[in-house]
Design a protein that fits this description.
alpha/beta; 34 helices; about 15% strand; seven-stranded mixed beta sheet; eight-stranded mixed beta sheet; 26 strands; about 950 residues
């Protein structure tokens, strides 16, 4: 900086103070003190590069409007990034590092330590971030800013460490008596820090930067996340080592440092400005011309008058994924999105979608496939993801150490310390793989939980919103969200609607009330209203599409269309296979006897139906029922003809079994006459699971889920099937019809789904010798079950059904109220204008994935453990495969994957005991294992948890008793 010019402008004493105010200590800045002015300029320079190289066109346009017109947004954005640490120009910060504090006091900036300590004791959170909020409120107003703009800017400064305080919070504690905020000469220096920084960036004076439009809260939240991103990058000491001489600090110096960091980190945007999809492009992307439903969806994207919500309802196997991908291109081209987030119902469904998304993007441009991030807690076991990391260049393993996405690094910035991007990367930039940063990558495939997390009252939630804004969001199988999860989905849609993010929702079995709720949430957000009552039209057919957006006058506009499926209807025979159900007072022995009888009945049925060969899928509603049936079928048919798939295998074993099942029952595997294969599975096989079975046996489930299961039946054309199985057949079991009364359901099913929906689904099952026409009957069946008409039920069921409906209503209301404690915006606060106090007024949850998942999925908390083996003598620990660790459990690098692959989730009833488990002694310093709980098995692979014995083997997985 030009010291002489600064002295002429501000005086020698003030310039002397600028030369000692520190932003980062020597220990955190590469060995040299980092002056505060240098860090502000560094962060602003990073902000300029974010604007030029990462922000979506839609975001840049929105900020331009706020700043006063085209070309004005860049300066305002960079300036907002830079002033984030303005509050460090206060005693609240300068007193924290003894060496720096001494230099500051020598310069003439002093404070009374006793008063500062008293203030800090009263409000320990009153640190530089909150101090910066106070400075912004006072000094921007002095610069002539209107109150409405001061009000939205100060929370961005005060909240840059992850949580937005209230206006009351940023007031200095009265016990500090001005000694945390600073008195006397401090006030002049704080003003000069702002003025000199603004001038050095070439932006004139702070008064010149006053916005002209108050941004929406969604845009404020996005800006806040981008400010945090700029701060984190500019805090990486590899590229921004300290500068302790004010003469070395300048805007040009910071821009040079930022450019070098940007290149080394390998940060890249998405697809940039896409051309509008032409009629022939669909075939180029996917290798075939669009089916009628796919053409309908693309046409709807073209017809939308603004960014909005599109709901696509189409049968399983219709090609909804490709339709959504093509529509995403259209919406991105029209509304300035620069990437996509694809949210799937589970980790298991995310993995194949990751492959499909990379293939699609590669067809757009070969280098885009390398920018896709897989975002879920078990991605380390996805073979394609692992291959990407192996090709990522030197140091990639260290850079991806935050693979679990949440809380893996004690560094508050989550910064990696070794390994940078190389010029010819084949994997996403490592920066995006650190904690809390995954959604900021241009293309992301993950569980829907990642979207729901953006609707929770959690620290750094702004990073998640910054990652979603500027993309097209695609959500698959949203009907799988229950009433609890739907509260977070509704909140997320509100924020996305206000942010102008195009959203595509896919479902094969969406209830009418769900469709209505989705549009009401999105449109209320778009209108910045607490509630918005709209009449959502239903498409006049199936497959169908409904799209909505707000007109320029703020009115909701709709587009609906329907067409015919590309495949003819399947006439599906639906038969009831009654199962004797244990009563509430039945003994354990009686329950076991009835279960064995039910298993034997299924075994006999399959022996008869598969006499000439063929494939069968059996879906049970609980792991225990699946394991019990597998034991029966393995004894009857042999291990070679039966597979078992459920969630209580280790993650490595589950990945292997899933891959094998998809291969054996997939469309490209030839089937030979007389061969037989049976897959026994839980709900993992219910949706987004591309298998083709000749025969289905399933426990009763609510109609939408039952139809999803039927979607695995006769899924692909051209599959060779035995003559007796050429007509699709489904046997529905897991309940006991009763003469003159309502049916009884197995305990597991009733516990998961409740009696209300099971009763209504049982009522729509066809009579003997009848069936369903799929997909034509799907909307009608789902509508009848979920619309709640009492006339659906036989008269002899209605009294029990009324009780079940009341119980369900009370349960749903309680679950919705429980979710409200964690939802980002409290009811009644959606029309607020700023982010002040956003994190206050309800419960907050931790930032690690277990805590977040527990918040958005409302089940009894379950715990993951890592299985290891130790003999009775207490010798060395071993992996499940028998490979030695050490007496302390130390893990050699070549065994790490095997140990991590032995992770398994315990049943919720064992949580109390599982929480007492600890890491092995040798794991405490390990970045991936230090928070893992070890469950030590004996040589028979058994362990005791409380009064329960658990065992593990690769055939059955984890078993109790």
């Amino acid at each position: 900086m030009d010291l002489e010019g600064l002295r002429e402008r501000y005086g020698s004493s003030v310039v002397g103070a600028l030369g000692v105010l520190w932003g980062k200590s020597r220990e955190r800045a590469g060995g040299t003190t980092s002056l505060l002015m240098g860090h502000l300029l560094d962060t602003a320079a990073v902000g300029e590069l974010l604007w030029d190289g990462l922000l979506a066109p839609s975001t840049r346009s929105a900020v331009d409007v706020v700043a006063g017109g085209p070309g004005r947004g860049r300066g305002l954005f960079a300036w907002l990034c830079g002033i984030h640490d303005w509050g460090k120009a206060t005693p609240a910060h300068q007193r924290l590092w003894a060496e720096g504090a001494c230099a500051v006091q020598v310069s003439g900036l002093t404070w009374v330590e006793a008063a500062a300590v008293a203030g800090a004791r009263k409000q320990r959170r009153w640190r530089h971030d909150w101090a910066g909020g106070l400075l912004a409120r006072e000094l921007l107003a002095s610069a002539g800013w209107a109150a409405e703009h001061v009000d939205w800017v100060w929370p961005l400064v005060a909240g840059h460490h992850g949580a937005f305080p209230s206006l009351r919070d940023v007031q200095e504690p009265n016990t500090a008596k001005g000694q945390l905020r600073g008195r006397g000469a401090w006030r002049e220096v704080q003003q000069v820090v702002l003025d000199a920084f603004t001038h050095e960036m070439g932006l004139g004076s702070p008064g010149d930067l006053q916005p002209v439009v108050v941004p929406s809260r969604a845009l404020q939240l996005q800006l806040s996340g981008l400010v945090v991103m700029a701060d984190w990058i500019a805090s990486d000491e590899r590229f921004f080592t300290g500068l302790d001489d004010l003469r070395q600090v300048s805007g040009d110096t910071s821009r040079g440092r930022a450019a070098a960091a940007w290149t080394a980190l390998g940060l890249e945007r998405g697809w940039g400005a896409l051309p509008l999809l032409g009629p022939e492009t669909f075939g180029d992307r996917f290798g075939y011309g669009p089916r009628p439903s796919q053409a309908m969806v693309v046409a709807a994207a073209r017809a939308m008058g603004g960014p909005g919500l599109m709901v696509v309802e189409a049968p399983m196997g219709e090609g909804k994924t490709e339709a959504a991908q093509a529509a995403s291109e259209v919406l991105a081209a029209r509304f300035g999105a620069d990437g996509v987030f694809v949210g799937m119902p589970s980790q298991a469904t995310s993995d194949p979608m990751f492959t499909r998304t990379r293939r699609w993007l590669e067809a757009i441009a070969p280098d885009l496939a390398s920018r896709v991030v897989l975002l879920h807690g078990k991605r380390a076991f996805n073979q394609e993801w692992k291959a990407l990391l192996e090709n990522a260049g030197a140091g990639a393993e260290q850079a991806f150490a935050g693979v679990d996405e949440f809380g893996m690094d004690e560094d508050p910035y989550g910064l990696v310390h070794e390994g940078c991007g190389e010029a010819e990367r084949k994997a996403p930039a490592e920066w995006f793989l650190g904690p809390k940063r995954g959604l900021l990558a241009p293309f992301v495939v993950g569980t829907v939980d990642q979207l729901l997390y953006a609707a929770t009252r959690t620290r750094h939630v702004m990073l998640r919103m910054a990652g979603l804004a500027g993309k097209v969001v695609v959500l698959d199988e949203v009907h799988a969200c229950d009433v609890y999860m739907s509260q977070f989905l509704a909140e997320a849609l509100r924020w996305l609607g206000q942010a102008g993010v195009p959203v595509i929702v896919l479902s094969a079995t969406l209830a009418p009330a769900q469709r209505q709720a989705l549009f009401e949430s999105y449109l209320a957000g778009a209108a910045s209203k607490e509630e918005l009552q709209v009449q959502v039209p239903a498409p006049d057919g199936y497959p169908g599409v409904t799209a909505s957006w707000l007109s320029a006058s703020g009115e909701a506009r709709f587009h609906t269309d329907a067409t015919h499926s590309w495949r003819p209807d399947l006439p599906v025979e639906v038969r009831v296979m009654a199962e004797a159900v244990a009563g509430a007072r039945s003994s354990r022995e009686e329950r076991r006897r009835l279960q064995m009888e039910a298993d034997a009945g299924v075994g006999a049925l399959l022996a008869d139906e598969l006499a000439d060969g063929g494939t069968a899928l059996v879906i049970r509603n609980s792991v225990a029922r699946a394991q019990s049936l597998y034991e029966e079928l393995r004894g009857r048919f042999g291990e070679g003809e039966v597979r078992l798939l459920h969630a209580r295998f280790t993650v490595a074993r589950r990945a292997d079994v899933t891959e094998e099942c998809l291969r054996l029952l997939g469309p490209r595997t030839p089937r030979h006459p007389g061969e037989r294969l049976i897959l026994v599975a839980t709900q993992l096989a219910e949706q987004s699971f591309d298998v083709d079975a000749d025969l289905l046996v399933t426990d009763l489930a609510p109609a939408d889920l039952l139809l999803q299961r039927i979607g695995r039946l006769h899924r692909h054309e051209g599959t060779v099937r035995p003559a007796r199985l050429r007509t699709p057949k489904v046997f529905v079991t897991g309940f006991q019809p009763r003469e003159g009364g309502e049916p009884a359901f197995v305990f597991a099913s009733e516990g998961i789904y409740g009696r209300h929906l099971l009763l209504r689904t049982a009522a729509v099952l066809p009579g003997e010798g009848r069936g369903w026409s799929v997909p034509s009957d799907v909307p009608h069946l789902v509508g009848r079950v979920y619309e709640g008409e009492a006339s659906l039920l036989p008269a002899t069921w209605r009294e029990a059904a009324e009780v079940a409906a009341r119980e369900q209503h009370d349960r749903d209301r309680a679950r919705a109220a429980n979710a409200a404690k964690f939802v980002l915006t409290a009811h009644g606060e959606h029309e607020r204008r700023t982010l002040a106090g956003l994190h206050y007024g309800g419960s907050t949850t931790g930032g690690d994935e277990e805590a977040l998942q527990a918040a958005v999925r409302d089940g009894d908390e379950s715990v993951e453990v890592v299985l290891v083996v130790q003999d009775e003598s207490g010798g060395v620990f071993r992996t499940l495969a028998g490979r030695a660790l050490s007496v302390n459990g130390d893990v050699a690098p070549d065994l790490l994957e095997e140990v991590l692959g032995s992770t398994v989730r315990l049943p919720a009833r064992l949580t109390e005991f599982a929480l007492q488990l600890k890491p092995l002694p040798g794991w405490h310093g390990h970045p991936w294992l230090r928070r893992s709980r070890a469950l030590v098995l004996d040589t028979a692979r058994r362990a005791r948890l409380g009064d329960v014995t658990v065992s593990y083997d690769d055939q059955f997985g984890l078993r109790q008793g």
